[in-house]
Request: fold
Amino acid sequence: MKFLKNVLLLAAGLCLMFGSAKGAMAASAKDNYRTYCAQCHGMQGNGQGINVRDMDVQPRNHTDAVYMGSRSDHDLLTADKKGGLAINKSVLMPPWGDTLNDQELHAMVQYLRKLCHCQEGKQ
Amino acid sequence: MNLLKPFALWKGIAGAAVAVGILALAAPPSRAGDVSAGMGILKNSCVSCHNLTGPAPTTLKALWARKGPDLFYAGNEFRKSWLISWLQKPVRVRPAGEFYADHIKPGPVHDVVDESTLKPHMALSKEDAVKVADALMTLRAHSDLIAREHVAPGTISKTMGKMVFGKFLGCIACHRIAPDYGGLSGPELYTAGSRLQPAFMASYIRSPQAWDPKIWMPNKHVNDARIQQLVHYLQSMKGGNQP
Reply:
């Protein structure tokens, strides 16, 4: 009986660890960036994607350590999940909350920190 | 009663004229033989790039491997008349192909489409195009999503529609509204009015992920009024240079 209880607890724990709001396996932040972000932010993360030519507001250069260092992880997460308007930025940055789950969104913030070689509040 | 007779006659003539007009505008009705022949062509020549049975990719790996648009809901997505015409004279709908990230390269200022990696779509004879269109119109996955939509007849000024599309929602970032204006990672929309069914436009805008779970178009939670405005605007986009 105790063994069965432990198995059930372990199963519940695994569900919490690997389950997600979207009910799908989390993809790596690098792969998600290539799929969803690179169209505007560029294949090198420099803000120069294929869509930029006719955009009124240019996408952020994610390799810009000075700017990216000035934004908090919370701001980056909010913009990724709810779109640019949620942090008083452009509507051209869309919300990805229905595409990426919370685990993937948090991983994306860490990936952005890798691209800019910067941390929150530091350049 | 006699006074009303001419009116009734006129109404009848007008009704018949409208019916004839609608029939003339619509694509020819399909025949069982054409559907079967068309399905044969699809299975022989198209299935290597197009998914005819579903489901849509649920992983990035599967998404990246997709070579052409899924067609298992083609009958709910496309207008038959457009299919017949396009299959005879295919013009690229997705400027950066599919999957877009496989067809881009760094340019002098920004990333550009790498045209050398894009292949032209095969063209069909008129006879085969009709058969394939007939077969495609029978592929109707997600009819439940279509049934939830109601696109009210109406008009909206093109200027307003363009504002919603461009300024309020930012769709212009990824979609072209003229052959040389707009983004490149999504399908061009300057022929959307002749290409797509209105209920499909509404449903896809409401939730791209309901149709294609991993697609790189975000769900912007567009409200009903805006969806109607956008669909009216897109329906007016029937090709040509109209920024």
Q: What stands out?
A: The domain at 144-235 of chain B is CATH 1.10.760.10 (Cytochrome Bc1 Complex; Chain D, domain 2).
